[in-house]
Amino acid sequence: MSMIYSQIRAFHAVASHGSFTRAAAALSVSQPTLSSQVKALEAKYEVDLFIPAGRGIEITPLGRRLHAITQKQFRLEAEAELLLSETRSLKAGFLRIGADSPYHALPLVARYQERYPGIEISMNFGNSRDTLADLMARRIDVAIIPPPPEDDPRLISQLLIADRLVAFVPKAHKWAKQKSVNLKRLAGTRVILREEGSTTRAVFEAAVAAAGMTLKDVFEIGSREAVRAAVVEGLGVGVVSEAELIRGDNIHVLPISGADLRVPEHLVCLAECAPQRTIKAVFDLLED
């Protein structure tokens, strides 16, 4: 504790209690120690903060002005201590989450909010590439995205959910009575995909390339909702994550055969931030 802080604290206690004796008892120090700290403060700035008054003391006009400031100072100090204490116990705090899909993220967020209602949560959604960039730039605390490179020591990740890609067509489509569709047939028709940088597109294009094929025709749309709307309008065959697909009577879902199209979603954070209580608590939920 710095000397000036000790002296200010001593002054504040005397001004608040109106007595050196009561102030010393409140701070659990001896009265001579307290008196010497106040006198040192007065001597340092060549001022009088208290003057004798009968058998007691009286605060000076300057002392009253200083006391008004120290009241604010120690109130804010108490608030800061309370904030840190409550954050440690997860009664208060902040958590910023980024995800490439609300469908994977929101169930976890709901569990977290139920267990820690005092934690304020903000969420951003974007494609997996942008979400990872936000994490690396510390614009978010945790990310829900496909697994990052295993050899990156800056990151810690844990499996959240294992999803898969599916195709879907409008009910009037010629494939609407099929139970599934082969990857080769799918690559030979117009497919509707999210923008580059999305997990769906990366996984699907990688599977097509691994099978030694190329896509015949890609209709790119920037959101999963728009992909569904385009399929309903007959603009092509949609490919999306199964968990993200909004089902309905106007579409038919087709599992894709002939390729491994699993899409694991991981909870990811920076390794150096993993010990933070608000972040660690998210990962702990996956162990429950």
Automatic annotation (TrEMBL):
The record, for Pfam families, names:
HTH_1, LysR_substrate
Report the protein name in the record.
Answer: LysR family transcriptional regulator
Key words of the record: DNA-binding, Transcription, Transcription regulation
User: What Gene3D superfamilies does UniProt report for this protein, alphabetically?
Assistant: 3.40.190.290, Winged helix-like DNA-binding domain superfamily/Winged helix DNA-binding domain
The record's listing under PROSITE patterns reads: HTH_LYSR
Q: Which organism is it from?
A: Denitrobaculum tricleocarpae
Q: Which domain of life is it from?
A: Bacteria
Which family, according to UniProt? Belongs to the LysR transcriptional regulatory family.
In alphabetical order, the GO MF annotations are: DNA-binding transcription factor activity; transcription cis-regulatory region binding
The beginning of the lineage is: Bacteria, Pseudomonadati, Pseudomonadota, Alphaproteobacteria, Rhodospirillales
What InterPro entries does the record point to? LysR_HTH_N, LysR_subst-bd, WH-like_DNA-bd_sf, WH_DNA-bd_sf
Q: Which residues form the HTH lysR-type domain?
A: 3-60
